[in-house]
Design goal:
240 residues; two-stranded antiparallel ribbon; 24% strand; globular
């Protein structure tokens, strides 16, 4: 497969307030080894074969992000900085509609600042081949499901349990059509908070099976102060 012929766009979700991080600064703007957290995700996609990057940010932050991050660091692949919506799926759909031209769309959480070019390229390849894929790693822990009262209901076969990450990547017509249906059903039935990731939208509305693509255990989601310390250690080790 000639990856250079595939037009791929990255949609980086960088909204939210980061309440679990504490403090007044949203986590996507917190400093990590001298740069804002958001910088690292953009930088990695900038170095990949992705041809276009769309940033979805907290409403009102569009100019701040454009000036303080995109222009400051000279990112050339960022085509749009758009406002997010009330729910995650609203934000993803806003970003999808801002993409100018792409065969493949990669949707990524800015909080996963330590994603690698290798993971990005593998999800592009798998999305092109299978239609939809998610980066993930095998669970190292035993996973149990609970009942409504907090008692163990069942134990999942660990050999088939995966921890889902981002990017989650899709053929553009597939995910765009799926989100159009999601928006319509959500407005009709009030599915607030129902979709916790983009693969759920594809699974529900496209009929497309989602391929699991090997991610990286270093591709952590920075949510708490402890995560920020771990991310710093990973970055320092990468430089050494």
């Amino acid at each position: 497969m000639n990856m250079e012929k595939i037009k791929s766009a990255a949609l980086i979700l960088a909204g939210g307030t980061g309440k679990r991080m504490g403090g007044d600064v949203p986590k996507q703007y917190l400093e990590l080894c001298g740069h804002p957290l958001l910088y690292y995700a953009i930088d990695c996609f900038e170095k990949s074969s992705v041809t276009e990057i769309v940033l979805v940010v907290t409403p009102g932050d569009e100019e701040k992000v454009r000036k303080d991050i995109v222009d400051r660091y000279g990112f050339t692949k960022v085509s749009s900085v758009v406002a997010g919506g009330k729910e995650r799926y609203n934000s993803s759909y806003n970003g999808i509609r801002a993409i100018s031209d792409a065969d493949i769309v990669l949707i990524h959480d800015a909080a996963r600042a330590l994603v690698t070019v290798d993971v990005i390229e593998h999800t592009i390849k798998d999305a092109y081949e299978y239609g939809a894929c998610v980066a993930a790693v095998p669970s190292k822990d035993t996973i149990k499901l609970s009942d409504a009262d907090g008692f163990v209901e069942s134990t999942i076969d660990r050999s088939r349990a995966w921890i889902i990450q981002t990017p989650q990547s899709f053929r553009m017509p597939l995910i765009k059509a799926a989100y159009e249906q999601a928006e319509k059903e959500a407005s009709d039935k009030g599915l607030s908070g129902f979709f916790t990731d983009d693969a759920m939208v594809a699974e529900r509305y496209s009929g497309q099976k989602v391929k699991i693509t090997m991610g990286s255990y270093e591709n952590i989601k920075v949510t708490t102060p402890d995560d920020l310390q771990v991310a710093e250690e990973i970055l320092i080790n990468r430089k050494n």
